[in-house]
Amino acid sequence: MPGIEVRRKAEGQIALRERAGLVSPLSATHPDFGLSEAYDIAAEIVRIRRGRGERTVGRKIGFTNTAIWAEYGLDTPIWAHMYEDTVRFAAGDHAVLPLAGMAAPRIEPEIVLKLRSTPTGDGEDSLLAAIDWLAVGFEIVDCHYPALVIGTPAMVADPRNDAFLRSLKEFRIVLLCGGKEMARGQGAFVLGSPLLALRHLRDLLRSQNGEPLAPGEIVTTGTLTAALPVRPGETWSVSLDGIDLPAPSLTLA
């Protein structure tokens, strides 16, 4: 795709943030449009937004939960940058998030982590050693404006804690709305473990000659359950079994 066309499409995608509405995907009018072209446009979006003074703070991995691939017609995870103005921490493990300006928001409970160093090894203990803290978070996904709310982080004190490594694979999560169970999931749903999702992201960035992961970045590792539609006035929460992390809640306004 010519550079001027990439720039034009990137500016068009950025403009979508100014209005709440659904549009046809680029693939609807460009039959040959694929992931390679999408990443070219995404990279241009980052250049434009950084040029305007917006700051990226990490990466989000999408579609690490293979159980939802068929629903979206995908066969591989994808990634994108996250921006400072879309990430917030839940004081006291509860937050309120307005949905104004969103077109079709959905909620995804995820394991969120912050890097203390660039992950280099392939073993799960090595990957864990590169992490400063982990938390449960909610990602509110919209077609053009995602937001992330992070619960209280738990510091990684012992990266060779085999029990904790197992818990990241085996823990179970229930997503609730108003106290009613809406979906279930577990750590193994995201490429076998949130740590393996992190490794996949690192390797994917290498294959694309992209910016490597850096210390201080926040990474979301993919939804642990189905992504469900949300509406203002709802309060969502999670219950956790098999892992010692705080369970946040989120009220949508």
Query: How would a textbook summarize the main sheet?
Result: 9 strands, mixed
Order of helices and strands: HHHEHEEEEHEEEHEEHEEEE
Tell me the domain tally.
2
Strand percentage lies at: 25-35%
Broad CATH class of the largest domain: Alpha Beta
| Contiguous helical run count | 7
Protein architecture, described:
This protein has 253 residues and is an alpha+beta fold. The protein has two domains: 1-54, no CATH class; 56-252, Fumarylacetoacetase-like, C-terminal domain (Fumarylacetoacetate hydrolase, domain 2). It is 26% helix and 31% strand. The chain contains seven helices and 14 strands. It has helices at 3-15, 26-29, 35-51, 69-72, 124-129, 162-170, 194-207, and strands at 56-62, 78-83, 87-89, 94-97, 106-115, 131-141, 147-150, 154-155, 172-177, 180-186, 218-223, 228-229, 235-241, 249-252. The strands form two sheets. Strands 1, 2, 3, 5, 6, 7, 8, 11 and 12 form a nine-stranded mixed beta sheet that branches. A five-stranded mixed beta sheet has the order 4-14-13-9-10, with no helix packed on it. The longest helix has 17 residues, at 35-51.
